[in-house]
Queue: 4 jobs
Job 1
Amino acid sequence: TRTGKKGKPSLCCFIGNPLPEDVARQRWQWRYDLKHKNNGRRSKLNEDEEDEIILNVDCHYAQAKVGSWILNIGDCVCVKGEETKEHIGRILEFFKTMEGEDYFRVQWFFRAEDTVLKDAASSHDERRLFYSTLTNDNLLGCIISKVEVVKLPPSLQLKPKLVHPAAYYYDMEYCVDYSTHQLLLNAEHSVSPPLNVLPRYGESLESSKQELWLLDLYSGCGGMSTGLCIGAKVSGINLVTKWAVDQNSSACNSLRMNHPETQVRNESAEDFLELIKQWKKLSEQQYITDVENESEGLQKAEHHPTKSEPNKPTDEYEVLRLVDICYGDPCNNGSRSLHFQVRWKGYSPSEDTWEPIKNLSNCREKIKDFVRKGVETKLLPLP
């Protein structure tokens, strides 16, 4: 988590008078817009998240004093983090809240050990940082000291010699959302206002971070969809790969490791498209009615697990819940149809089985519950 933690009490305060309101509004108009839209309903946006924003701003300042350090907007500072961790960031704002608390907004730099390069961090200069566009608000008392950070042109050397011994430096950008590194643009990104926070005209705060969802067919390891999402984000569009489908199990495992937020399905695109059609029928409660009377027994199905359940006939077992859904032939019995992954009452997840829907037609409530939750969580896209 890239946030500051207030340390031991030290002399910290703002210097001078607040900036005139028209000057502050001209420079940080987005923050005053958020305050106006919030209308005092809450004090924070994205509370306890890495991009937390204070809403109840009262006024802005140009300078602050922390210990013996005089700090200006644009200075780089060392900030106390979790436990003994210390972070480096650039000051973007000084402001006081309506409750009289002193805050600063910071744009963070990342060390190699804080990125996907952590296993190779020992080969990097300890002074090397990576630029990022991650910003958030922190209490002024989190600042430890002022530091020097300089920008260098990209170099093949892991430890450049053209840096002052006491300075940190950066020569590349780290994209937090996609865990990737890239060369810095000639003009570094503006980090205020945050693209994914400031609502458009007429939008509420709750809708200001609306996501657009992407389905990646023949996804491989997800490189193409990741690049598309990065490009969209640079343009101010919050595009996210929600679903990915590929028949190669190794590619799917890699995609799951790098993008745990994506629902990855290891199956053919043809089976997945048929599944979407069947899913639409289920969501409209049509398919359940069609198969309602195809078999007997309530919440039971014919099955022969490896273990027998106490006090139950050996050929009948009770369904605890449905775990997943697919279209195809997961049991390799030559029959392609809609299947559910079944969790059996009294058995572990390792003994889940795939059952065709015709064997579960009288588990109507279980199927309805699964479909209802699946639609709510966007388990599958609807055509």
Job 2
Amino acid sequence: AALAETLLASELFGHERGAFTGATERKIGKFEAAHRGTLMLDEIGEMSPSIQAKFLRVLEGHPFERVGGSKPITVDVRVIAATNRDLEKDVAEGRFRRDLYFRLHVIEIVVPALRKRQEDIPELAEHFLRKFRAETGRKITGFTSAAIDKLLRYRWPGNVRELKNVIERAVVLCRGSLIDADDLLLTSIATPGDSEIQPPPGEEEFLPASLAEIEQRYILATLNYTGWNKSRAASILGIERSTLDRKIRRYGIIEDAPNRG
């Protein structure tokens, strides 16, 4: 774990020759290389506490040193950070620094799960087909209607990465000029929405109700399931956090007070 942390620090901040085993020459880190530009960091929630602290100092404009170095380096970098974790929950549980969270949380863009934007699936599939067709030289012209239907009905627990891998595998294994449904090897792993949401009490059997009543009960059930973590609930419901807040106000949904006996 310590080695992995050192290597991550090296990637971000660079290192001097001899800083650790295998450091045979000086290396410029991502921050230094992105000076006066933009740096995209994925899986930001996986940083260790010590890397988070150093990262925060850089974001606040303080100089940093390369691993094994002592020369202060100052950079001017715009940072775009991405994560699939619930950072609000990680902050509450002490796994992510509160000050770093608020420093990063300037403009938030929530990308819905692939299953919630089905109109993108055919276009992404065609994109990946063109990419892997060019790489492999296969003479595949497109998808059958059965294949597209299978792609649209699948829940995509692995999102776009999974779609990319499925198309790559299909391009390699396809025996004809069109990718058919049988060429698409999909998993049976449940999506978070399938496994995390339990139906509200009384939903197992049909009870006539308006759409507004059903929505109100479902939102309340989701909020109770997540312990009223609104960001997580909004992610599960597939809506923006601000939209969830408006619906809570519209329906007058109130968190139940804990039973203290």
Job 3
Amino acid sequence: MKNYIVLLLLAIMAVSCGPYQTALKSTDNEVKLAMIDTLLKREKYSKAVNLFDQIIPQYRGTDKAEALSIKYAKALYETRDYPNSAYQYERFVQSHPASDNREYAAFMGAKSHYHMSAVYSKSQVNTDRALAKLQDYINLYPDGEYAEQANGLVSELRFKLDRKAYEIAKNYHHRNRYIPAIKSFENFIVQHPGSEFMDDAQFYLIDSQYLYALKSRNELVPERLELATKYYNTFVSRFPTSEYREDADEIMENINDYKIKNNI
């Protein structure tokens, strides 16, 4: 038993005094640089970051700054430290405008912001920022190496914003808050013209306006039903084969029945 404990302690000491720990404690930056390259090859990014944090300030303004900066940013990105990777990539772009890695850094900085975008149900401040950063890259490098990927990320983020806006409007509708629902769906249709939720929004706008009309004072019903009819005509013109077509037709039949019964 005692021999086992001794061996265990020796193993722990061996690990604690291994090459990485030696480099971490060393005052020789060349030792740290060599270990960083080894760790990056082995994809041990967290350990590499620890060493980078020790030496990066000492190499700013030197011939090695450019190569170290891009490696540091990549290591941060691979550890999913996206706020810091975004910062380091953007700093690289500003500090090394003539670098061959400038386009790569510009894209990866924007992609770091993309990863900070929250799910659609939460605040989309980071999504807006990521879209702006990706658009900056696309504008700067329209035929760039990463342009296709950047456009794909933009589409994903726009879909997220579309969904958030649509779900907010739909929530008003389902809670029978027809005035804000109508306003929200109208804004959605204008502000999200290419959205996959467009026929959904157009249908719920009809339904919201129709139900709002029915809850109105008698003298206001005709005018509000006319607006629902206008929304219906737009809907069937744009989406004649929509999954909501039958429901929309039923609303229109109800509107016509109401007009007949009330001599409108």
Job 4
Amino acid sequence: MKSVEVQEKTVELAIEKGLQQLGCSIDKVETEVLSAGGLFTKAKVRLVKKDTVGEKAQNYLEGFFKIIKLGALIDVEEDDEEAVLNIVGTDLSLLYDNNGEVFDALQYLASLSANKDSLEYKRVVLESEDFRARREEQLEEYAQAMAQKALKTSRRIKLEPMNPYKRRVIHTKLQGFHGVTTHSEGEEPYRAIVITPTNSRPNYDRKPNHRRNNNRKNYKNGQRGGNYGAKSRPNSSGFNSAKPQKQSGWTTGTLIKRNSFDTE
């Protein structure tokens, strides 16, 4: 942090002179009155310039690189909307492991640390050897291919879960793609993008098959197939259960022997 100590006739004049020396406004500094001054003494104040979001992110990364013993330099370019930190080094392969997941995680942590005490959130972007630009180009090509597939099949396509940075790239790319819309579903870290064509096929509600449901219930109760179209079976589970009689062609009742000489 850059700081200055200024003496003037009054505290207000001392602060104004200190802001001119630091080249910033009053909201960008921390002010400490060392002496209010008097009849024969001047007022004395100390002004400490606050670190910007980009400078906080730079301090965080430099401390991290020192811990893992990675030799790298960080160049900061910052405006009112975002802070871009370009990392330069001889061997940065460690940052590109797991298809760039380490790089994305480092950007996320640097952004959290830099915006911790800020009233307004400012986006922090890490760049290194055009790695971010190449990644964005690959994501844009992937998004366009999936959008074309959704249009061809007329069905919605859900992509794999992605971090917020990747989702933002795909949303931005397909925002002007004719014939599809995009939205995100799920909770972090499983939040994913869904690509929906405007001519997608509707999902009609199917009428419930009550007969099929009844058959399933009857099957659980031991009646296979239910009552529809089923033939009745005799009860053969007991010891004294009746067995079906074989028909012999004779009628039941008392057998009467007839005389052959009797006339009909």
